[in-house]
Amino acid sequence: MSDSTFVVGDVHGHRDELADELREHGLIDDADNWSGGTATLWFLGDFVDRGPDGIGAITLVRELQRQAADAGGCVETLLGNHEILLLGVHRFGDTDVPSDFGPRSFARSWEINGGQASDQEALTDDLVEWLSTRPLLAHTGEHLLMHSDTLEYLEWGSSVEKINETVHDVLAGDDLSRWWEVWRRMTTRYAFRGPHGVEAAESLLDELGGERIVHGHSVIADQLGIHPVDIEQPYLYAGGRVLGIDAGLFAGGPCLVVSLPYVPED
Ligand SMILES: [Mn+2]
User: Fold this and answer.
1) 70 CA distance to ligand 1 centroid (A)?
2) Chain centroid offset of residue 188 CA
3) CB under 8 Å to 100, separation ≥6 — which residues?
4) How many A from CA of 147 to the centre of ligand 1?
5) Which domains does the chain have, with CATH numbers?
6) Does the model's pTM come out above 0.85?
7) For residue 143, what are the β-bridge partners?
8) How far is the CA of 130 from the centre of ligand 1 (A)?
């Protein structure tokens, strides 16, 4: 277990399924306490919306973060677009976003993207502060971790540190247009699929560092043309430069806890 690194993709409110899978991998015990020792566990964001208990999932992760730190391990998470949505509704509600493209607001987007009233009600100031300061991008070993499979992160800077800093400044402020831009950019996807995927992945890795991108956000079942229930492994693509780990838990797929570096079974 020591020195092992694990990544988990989009949980979308499925707190209990997450706990079951972490237990299966020896990372938590029967009482949901950290048992991973000095292991590192990264989440790629999108804890909330679509499923019943997003705040419960975040609360579990925060508790594991404290316990892992005491044990010499590490638990950390990236922000997903659904965390931006959760925080945006909390801060701006149904205030219209200045736009030439018709009426839009965080509240409206939250409703049509599976927002759960119980998550908004359970959102405390402490959780808002913690979430608002999580990174968008991170490195672990030779991996570049990102929530969304998009190049739009580069609009905020040309290094991981700069991108995280720019977005943290936005989230610390009250500029609705800039907040909206964070949501909009992080909702884009599929940058590494198709004939130009390898090139896009390699140019991003050249710019931000790392040998392999690991992302969530876009379910791998539709990339493979199968149903999420038939997914058993993450999906390595774009010439081996990109690993997709969102198995579509909200759509009946498994909660993958992926050990890095990932080696395909066949
Ligand atoms: Mn997402």
Assistant:
1) 30
2) 14
3) none
4) 7
5) 5-260 (3.60.21.10)
6) yes
7) 140, 212
8) 19
